[in-house]
Task: structure prediction
Amino acid sequence: MLFSYADYQASAAYLKEKLGSFQPKVAMVLGSGLGYLGDVVENPIVVPYADIPHFKHSTAPGHKGQLVFGRLAGKDVAVMQGRMHHYEGYSYEEVSYAVRVLRLLGCETLFVTNAAVGVNWNFKAGDLMLITDQIKIIMESPLRGENLPEFGPRFPDSSYLYTPKLQDLARKQARKLDMDLKEGVYMYFPGPQYETPAEIRMARALGADAVGMSTAPEVITAAHCGMEILGFTLVSNMAAGVLPQPLSEKEVLDAAAAARDRFSALVLACLEGL
Result:
């Protein structure tokens, strides 16, 4: 175990000094190219990750690496503009560290987003997918090591990592927006290299609809400490072997930019509906 309960408390205490009486209820982890929602938070309080005790830096392209606190869609939120990844050299405990800190600040719900490659043959680049479940069978858990009972039990249940009532809310809001919201299972791979065609065939055989390099560690950690979770994937490009072309980082950022209005509308509608 890299961090003690006192470490998490120290990070939370630092942020509480910055926030004063403000107490966020919804935490939002925004992935590659999707952090712009943090730019429209009302009365923002911005805190760089580098200033927070025990936080790590976010180095991935499209990730600003800062927390934004304020009002969004009528809710008190804590928006992570960028996340940490295992491929950056961080342990899974470091990757998911912020989730526990935000829980200590009072966040009860986690909205998590990512950009990922499509595995489902019926998907196409630009689709938005509601995450109904996840697969993480590669490498260790973020809960590995000594358990911190202040957050949750030694052996947490994973039957409903993504909260069913929040999934229903997302479906309802998508219908109101007349939006084609796909649904599926997100599978985690550590990266940073994109998956091989053989690995994609394996993922499809295991039941994955989209594959990415984030999200799963944070979700496991959030569920462990009792948070309700809603997740969305932007299908930024199709996986290796689906189309006869190489994958690139530029595709991810271009797809995020193109989906900005639809993605924002859906997430904000779900926030309003809480």
User: Anything to note?
Assistant: The helical segments are 5-19, 92-95, 97-104, 164-176, 197-206, 216-224, 249-258, 260-273. DSSP finds eight helices and nine strands in the chain. The mean pLDDT is 90. The CA atoms of residues 11 and 177 lie 39 Å apart.
